[in-house]
Specification:
Chain A: It comes from Macrostomum lignano. The complex is a heterodimer of chains A (about 230) and B (about 100). Chain A has about 230 residues and is of the alpha+beta class. Chain A is built from five helices and seven strands. Chain A has a seven-stranded antiparallel β-sheet with strand order 1-7-6-5-4-3-2. Chain B is mostly helical and about 100 residues long. Helices cover about 50% and strands about 0% of the residues of chain B. Classes of the chains: A alpha+beta (about 230), B mainly alpha (about 100).
Chain lengths: ~230, ~100
């Protein structure tokens, strides 16, 4: 059965791999994943130093979420199986998420995600593939593939935002430090722009300046001090 | 009198990160597939939250196995009742227990 649609996305989480691990089990609920209404661990074991987990997630769709040609194939409630392998030695999380239930009559939508460290951050590589399970009309399969891929592309940023939301709640100091560095940088840039603007206006080279056309250098103490 | 003081904020932050406490219990959680299993799920989740940071540090024995088996039994009953074909993703015929 050939793959009939795929998409790859690379994202980053500005938190260490260890912190991402700790938050991994607390991704739900979050404001960007209100459709996840239930979650259960159905299997968990340690094999060769790696933690293998299988979780069952229940997704509740809103009435307008599916196009008309897919509504008859499924209910508003969808079951998702997430398999994850956490390897602390290799610092890697690999998750494989797929749908089960009525829609698998048409195709299986599989998302594979790799979380690996990248400096002080965690690199997230997401790959999604659709595999046909039964041959239906070319039109329906093409429409379904396009719908699933485009739907995934629209919400792939939201899944990262949801994870960020949980990480920010669990580790607010990291967020505040990053935010503080960003604000300090913005402040420096703002004051540099302001001082340049003041200098230009004082010399008259700024907008509306009388000396703009003459290119005269101002020798007053303000401009002399800023030149140093 | 010499005291062991962190020399910089970065060092203190690194030390704090290395001795990261267990997962905070204040975050909300998603309920179980069946309301009957919620309490068992909360008990198991609390145990796992204590175990998982130690697993990342190198512990390989899972302290929560007994809590997990009773929680899993409850979940599997709900899976069978709702006729969820949980193991069809493997295609290996490993039936749900």
């Amino acid at each position: 059965m050939a793959d009939s649609g795929h998409l790859s996305v690379t994202q980053r989480l500005p938190f260490s791999w260890e912190r991402v691990c700790l938050a991994f089990w607390r991704r739900y609920p979050n404001p960007y994943a209100k459709h996840i209404v239930a979650e259960d661990v159905v299997d968990r074991r340690i094999v060769d130093g790696c933690l293998h987990t299988r979780r069952l997630l229940v997704k509740q769709r809103s009435p307008g979420a599916l196009p008309w040609y897919l509504k008859s194939l499924t209910s508003m409630c969808e079951y998702i199986v997430e398999d994850s392998v956490i390897d602390p030695a290799a610092k890697s999380i690999v998750t494989t998420t797929r749908n089960i239930g009525l829609l698998t009559r048409l195709g299986v939508f599989t998302e594979t995600v790799h979380y690996t460290p990248c400096g002080d951050e965690t690199r997230v590589l997401k790959t999604v593939r659709i595999r046909h399970t039964v041959r239906v009309s070319d039109w329906l399969q093409r429409k379904a593939n396009n719908f699933f891929i485009s739907s995934y592309a629209k919400r792939v940023e939201d899944t990262n935002r949801g994870f960020m939301h949980v990480l920010s709640q669990m580790f607010p100091n990291v967020v505040e430090k990053a935010r503080g560095n960003y604000k300090a940088g913005q402040e420096l840039a703002r004051s540099a722009r302001q001082s340049l603007r003041d200098k230009l206006n004082h010399v008259g080279a700024g907008p509306g300046g009388l000396l703009a056309s003459r290119r005269i250098r101002c020798l007053c103490p303000v401009c002399a001090k800023s030149d140093k | 009198m010499a005291t062991n003081q962190p020399t910089s904020e970065a060092t203190a932050d690194k030390q704090k990160q290395q001795t990261e406490p267990s997962l905070p219990a204040t975050l909300p959680s998603v309920p179980s597939l069946s309301p009957e299993c919620n309490q068992l799920k909360e008990q198991y989740d609390a145990c796992f939250k204590d175990f998982f940071p130690r697993f990342l540090q190198g512990q390989r024995t899972n302290d929560c196995d007994s809590l997990f088996s009773s929680y899993k039994e409850c979940v599997m009953r709900a899976v069978k009742a709702k006729n969820i074909h949980l193991w069809e993703v493997d295609g290996t015929g490993d039936s749900a227990k």
